[in-house]
Known about the structure:
Elements: H1 3-11, H2 17-30, E1 35-39, E2 44-48, H3 49-55, E3 58-61, H4 67-83, E4 90-93
Amino acid sequence: MNNDFRKFAVHHLGMNGLALDQYGASISNNYISPTIMEERKLNVTQLDVFSRLMMDRIIFLGTQVDDYTANVIQAQLLYLDSSDPGKDIALYINSPGGSVYAG
């Protein structure tokens, strides 16, 4: 999970950091999260695909919607909007559904 996003969600949105960590762990435990190598001027870094997509203002929802998932998606949308208001955000949904109350 992107460290800037985690800081924003905890400090500005009041989200529980432990809940975010548990959500991130559940995603990585249940799914294969491919990594990519990103080459920049002075270094090479390894990123998971979802963090790289978020850098390009793309959010991917690939699980059922529950309270944690809905909160994380909402926080990601708010983070991206606050970092560059007015710029487009793409949301790709591949979800079997989920809780009506969660979103």
